[in-house]
DNA sequence: TTGAAAGCGCTAACAC
DNA sequence: GTGTTAGCGCTTTCAA
């Protein structure tokens, strides 16, 4: 930043005191500084427009008051609320956030390296529920670097992590359908066969399974559509399902769709096929994107406490940042909340 | 980051060379270093797991390779693609991004202060098209700090800025309706009366006006609904419009909705009222959120090149970062692209 | 209460 | 080619 930098020395000179006195005043170590000199310092600071150099300070304090936010795939809208939650708690604590998106593990490792050389004080890792290898995270943890991980399956109890109760979400979404009398309940699942696996997809699917199982219900395999969490995928999966009209197993009376993005396009596919929701077919899903309340019909869904995840993560990190190390490695699972809207109706034989 | 830090001196010692040699090797000033010593240095670096301290380097180079991203309201999904665009160009250039959200001007000024003391090399400001006062930006500019501003109206030609052609978007969206034979074209506008003003809302509205004016069309004032860019707002505005059924001016045959969020709820409101889109009423809008292609019916809209805005901003900033200062303060206006989908049909007297 | 001075880890003259 | 050394701007003993 161009301009001749104004340093603490300039201030000291201007105020006719020593640099250490200036430093003391500026850092609130006022106790041992005379009121007169303090005033003089403050005046000089003001007059000169002095702006302390945080870099220089970081150098000697060996702390930067900065945390690295490593994002496994930034191209996801939930990024925003999560960051919001993180900022909400990190900002007041005086911390800054440095961003680094890292689409894969190699880049993640690379990002960690870079950020560490930047001397960040800690990390938050946010991923798309993908079960990447995490040896590097274990190592990082062993080195005593504070960090917390959001939405990633690491089967490692000494790393603090925030998860959503995906299985519970799938379960409850299905349970809701069951409670309405539906028994012919299909699913359009997320990428449950991906490798590395996608935890959310697998868990939501399992939740659906468990709910059905509890009621002793089995469904024809054709009613299980594996898709990919995208609009296009949801649309196509629905078309697949609709072809069963002519098939012996027939159509389900309800669909559990693994995320709200697909659910939106499921609605569209159903509409395009002339089926009415919820009269002809009910739909539940997971994820409560802002649009979910304004689809036609509005989606009954389980909302992920996204911003809360950011808050929790930051909170735990802060703990580790201040108390030198994460006290008790927490594994927090956040419950999803049901949002009952218009896409479901009680089961009845064809209208 | 705990652990005894390994410094460049340790490496020098281990390799039996001087620190400056190590520094040269590490910074690619290889020309003047013998191959033998270079190897020894590299080996020592590897063996010791040396990680250069970027903070120390920044201190002497007076550069941090970091840019501050100041976000006027982080709670907006377009944040993600914009960041994506920014990272796309800043990352390869070796720059990091420090985040700071600042909901209002006071906090923005504060954020700038903090980031400057953090020694960021430059800034990108991203706002919601709100015409905040910007004296502080002019000052920043005068101090020679490189920065660029996205989506904000500052009537100041020496500050590089990226804008979207909002007026053009409104114009073309309306023009499309006109070309389909519509003349009874209503608008659900954004917050055009806000203070400080919202540029996008005003411009889109003006685009609508201009298109009608060009065709010598005037509309009853009841057909102009001022709303707020939200789902709720869009829904309510539509209900207002629908009350005109009983009114002497009657219903329009088409609506230009100022953003896609409102458009989604307009669709819903119309559906709830038993009106079919596009058979009974056509809808165009601005903004092409991912969901816009999957509403029922899919929205005909003008898409903002969002990621491109991020890219352009970063590109221009990079210019200023490397060439000491922004060469020629650019004001780039990005054109919006029409996405023709299902929400419009040719005008015809009531079906 | 105040100040002098020793670094924090690195780069870049400048000397050899 | 290679090494010595003077800072970058700040905090923090330690003395006075």
From TrEMBL, chains A, B:
Sample GO molecular function, one term: transcription cis-regulatory region binding
CDD domains according to UniProt: HTH_LacI, PBP1_LacI_sugar_binding-like
Residues of the HTH lacI-type domain: 6-61
Entries under InterPro entries matching the protein: HTH_LacI, LacI/GalR-like_sensor, Lambda_DNA-bd_dom_sf, Peripla_BP_I
UniProt KW keywords: DNA-binding, Transcription, Transcription regulation
Membrane-spanning intervals of the chain: none
SUPFAM superfamilies hit by this protein: lambda repressor-like DNA-binding domains (SSF47413), Periplasmic binding protein-like I (SSF53822)
Key word Repeat present: no
Protein name per the record: LacI family transcriptional regulator
Source species of the chain: Reticulibacter mediterranei
């Amino acid at each position: 930043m161009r301009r001749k930098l104004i340093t603490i020395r300039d201030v000291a000179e201007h105020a006719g005191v020593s640099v250490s006195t200036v430093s003391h005043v500026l850092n609130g170590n006022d106790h041992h500084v005379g009121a007169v000199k303090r005033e003089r310092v403050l005046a000089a600071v003001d007059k000169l427009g002095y702006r302390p150099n945080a870099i220089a300070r970081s150098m000697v304090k060996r702390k930067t008051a900065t945390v690295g936010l490593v994002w496994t795939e930034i191209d996801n809208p939930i990024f925003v609320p999560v960051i919001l939650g993180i900022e909400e708690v990190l900002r007041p604590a005086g911390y800054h956030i440095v961003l680094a998106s890292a689409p894969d593990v190699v880049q993640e490792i690379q990002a960690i390296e870079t950020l560490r050389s930047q001397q960040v004080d800690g990390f938050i890792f946010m991923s798309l529920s993908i079960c990447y290898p995490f040896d590097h995270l274990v190592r990082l943890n062993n080195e005593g670097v504070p960090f917390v991980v959001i939405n990633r399956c690491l089967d490692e109890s000494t790393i603090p992590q925030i998860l959503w109760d995906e299985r519970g979400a799938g379960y409850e979404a299905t349970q809701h359908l069951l409670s309405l009398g539906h028994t012919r309940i299909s699913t359009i699942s997320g990428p449950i066969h991906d490798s590395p696996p996608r935890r959310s997809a697998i868990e939501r699917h399992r939740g659906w399974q468990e709910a059905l199982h509890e009621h002793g219900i089995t469904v024809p395999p054709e009613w299980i559509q594996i898709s990919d969490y995208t609009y296009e995928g949801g649309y196509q999966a629905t078309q697949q399902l609709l072809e069963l009209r002519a098939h012996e197993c027939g159509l389900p009376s309800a669909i559990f769709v693994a995320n709200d993005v697909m659910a939106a396009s499921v609605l569209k596919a159903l509409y395009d096929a002339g089926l009415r929701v919820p009269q002809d077919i009910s739909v539940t899903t997971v994820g409560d994107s802002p649009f979910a309340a304004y689809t036609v019909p509005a989606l009954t869904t389980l909302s992920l406490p996204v911003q809360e995840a950011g808050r929790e993560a930051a909170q735990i990190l802060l703990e580790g940042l201040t108390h030198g190390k994460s006290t008790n490695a927490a594994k927090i699972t956040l419950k999803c909340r049901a949002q009952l809207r218009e896409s479901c109706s009680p089961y009845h034989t064809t209208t």
